Amino acid sequence: MPTTSEPPHEQPAAVRSAFDVAMWFSDRARVTGRRLQPMALQQLLFLVQAWYAAAHGGRALMPATFVAEETGPVEPNVHAAFSRGHPALDLELPLPVAAEAVLERVWKGFGTMTGEQLLRLTTALPAVRAAASRGRRAPIPLADIAGCLAEQVAATERTAPESPRLLRTQQGRTVRVAAWQPPAKPAAAD
């Protein structure tokens, strides 16, 4: 367990691997009837890492190194593994509740965007531009990634109602669970 004095970049990531997150996005796209292009997957991975790090004090969602490429920020290991379709992977499911909540939020906010729209969004971020200026395959530091969406995350956290719990059905679908609220009694007639 990390101590409070550990810098965020030295704390363990929330999930076991970037592949767990990539497969979550891929499965979510499949369930919603959408084909997730490799470029869109890479941008979603970057955005979810940024969102999680911004929301959790700089801690990484997944142990991943993003680098600047001509096609925007890329996690090279996931990119190589998915280059010929879905790889067969031994995944660690279910994901932690906090990770799943951020994945849901990023999917809801960015999942309907095209690969080109996502690429325009990510390549405009200062952390990505700074790494790209250092050259192809320049790493993008986690602290810089965390700063990418810090303002957006802070604004969302201030206005978001308390998140319901996320659980999975036997088929693996994510469902939101909230406490039952009894219906209000009708007002007594005078």
The largest beta-sheet arranges its strands as 1-2
Give the strand content: 5-15%
- Gyration radius (Cα, Å) is 18 Å
The largest sheet is:
2 strands, antiparallel
**Mass-distribution shape:** globular
Q: What's the overall average pLDDT, rounded?
A: 85
Number of domains: 1
Number of helices: 8
Instruction: Please count the beta strands (DSSP E, at least 2 residues each).
Output: 4
Q: SSE string, helix = H, strand = E?
A: HHEEHHHHHHEE
User: How would you classify the helix and strand content by structural class?
Assistant: mainly alpha
Unreliable stretches covering 5 or more consecutive residues: none
Share in helix: 40-55%
Intertermini distance:
61 Å
Write up what this structure looks like.
The chain is 46% helix and 7% strand. Strand 3 and strand 4 form a beta hairpin. It has 190 residues and is mainly α. The model has no long low-confidence stretch (mean pLDDT 85). The longest helix is centred in the first third of the chain and has 18 residues. The protein contains 8 helices and 4 strands. Helix 2 packs across helix 4 and helix 2 crosses helix 7. The chain has one domain. The strands form 2 sheets. A two-stranded antiparallel sheet has the order 1-2. Strands 3-4 form a two-stranded antiparallel sheet. The radius of gyration is 18 Å and the shape is globular.
